[in-house]
Amino acid sequence: MKYFFVCLACFISCNLLAHVSDSLYKEKYRPQYHFTPKHRWIGDPCGLIKHSGKYLAYSWGAAVSDDLVYWNELNDHAIKQVPEGISTFTGSVVIDKNNTAGWGNNVPIAVFTSFDEASKKQSQSIAFSHDGGMTYMFYDRNPVLDIWSTEFRDPTVIWDEGSKRWIMLVAKALEKKVAFYSSTDMKHWTWLSDFGPLGDSEKSWECPDMFQLPLDNLPAGKKWVLVVSVNWMREQYFIGEFDGVKFIPDNTGDYPLYIDKGLDYYASRVFRDYDDSSAPVYTIGWLNTWDYAETAPTTWGKGIWSVPREYRLRNTPEGLRLIQKPFDGLSKLRGARHTFKRKIKAGLTEIPFVKEMNNVYELDVTFSNMGNKPVGIFLCEGENKKAVLSYDPQSQYITLDRTNVSQTAIPKFERMSSCKVPAVNGRIRFHCYVDKSSVEIFVNDGEATLSFLTFPSDNQTGCSVFSLGMANVDLTAWKLKSIW
């Protein structure tokens, strides 16, 4: 009898494990081509680097990729021997090529905010890795930078070749400033300057990042871009120069300029490429907003990272602007190509083949010959619900309406956003990435982006285009493969 119960227990256990294995990464609202961890919270992307042919990303669990498309989760806590009562907050990773910190050549070093749970103090700490960035050992003399503040966080560290030293950017959150510090050994830091407030300075500044970009379609040269997350819900950016001590913005009357014009994009960082300094600059952000980040109706965990995007700078009629384009490598996920190309009359036209893609697809739609009548797209359509993306040729405004898309009631979720984007030669293009519970839209080759969460029902997979007059529609859609 004992043998029978042992066998029964083994049978039940094996079947439960098989069930868990079968359902993992297939949970309701689980993205199929965005990175999410197995079962945990994921917040700000941290420590984004490329080194020895691998992309690494943290939060502070570690993930690795060969191609920025397929990811392998390495662990859920990469920083080891963190003292009791200390939490690891947002930060960055560098490769110490020349052993400036004393832990060896080409050693990955994490720089992050240590949060003291008793005092609520935020200071900056470091950790080093001797296994290629899979895990890090907490430095026993942390913190390395402490101004005794509860609002001092999210360091980004870069190497300044001109002065041969490390530069750290840290947010003085409620002062709406980015503080710059320098160091030659990563362990001792000297204050250089503060930048801000400027632009959007209503509530707080967080997660600063700074990088150089070449000028798209212009003579050779580069400009510095400084990105800051603001008000716990969006990001602004500044274009200018960095002289090794301070950031000097161009055209201060232009600001604020926003990274994403949608509802859910925050805390982005760029990948630092230690293999090729001339490589394109790629970035990912957190598809979320603090108002409802912890109340999302997901069972596998909380939080999503965006698809990778390529940054460029483009000279526009309004001046020099940041351009974002979806990473070219995503095209390897495409299935069969479906097209719809015709003139539509006033009203709604269903795109039936999109419905069968179950909200896991790429959609490229161009409207032309619109006259002065609004056009647009219904996404996640069904059960009298939908997300509405519309364009008014007269005002040149795009409007995103998410007030009636979620299957469940989420506090503060029913919102709208808008932005002005002129048509190009009478055309407006929406390049959309829909993935179960999120949508990312790139307008007119990256001139504007709109990212937002959706949480539709299983029956809300429809898609339609509409016009209030006559318009030409050129639409292509691909079902995208899962990365799991």
UniProtKB/TrEMBL annotation:
The UniProt record lists the Glycosyl hydrolase family 32 N-terminal domain at: 34-326
Enumerate the spans annotated as Glycosyl hydrolase family 32 C-terminal domain. Answer: 332-478
Give the protein's recorded name. Glycoside hydrolase family 32 protein
Cited SUPFAM superfamilies: Arabinanase/levansucrase/invertase, Concanavalin A-like lectins/glucanases
- Keyword tags: Glycosidase, Hydrolase, Signal
Q: Which PANTHER family match?
A: EXOINULINASE INUD (AFU_ORTHOLOGUE AFUA_5G00480)
Entry's InterPro entries? ConA-like_dom_sf, Glyco_hydro_32, Glyco_hydro_32_C, Glyco_hydro_32_N, Glyco_hydro_beta-prop_sf
The lineage's top-level taxon is Bacteria
Residues annotated as signal peptide: 1-18
- Gene Ontology MF, one: hydrolase activity
Family per similarity comment: Belongs to the glycosyl hydrolase 32 family.
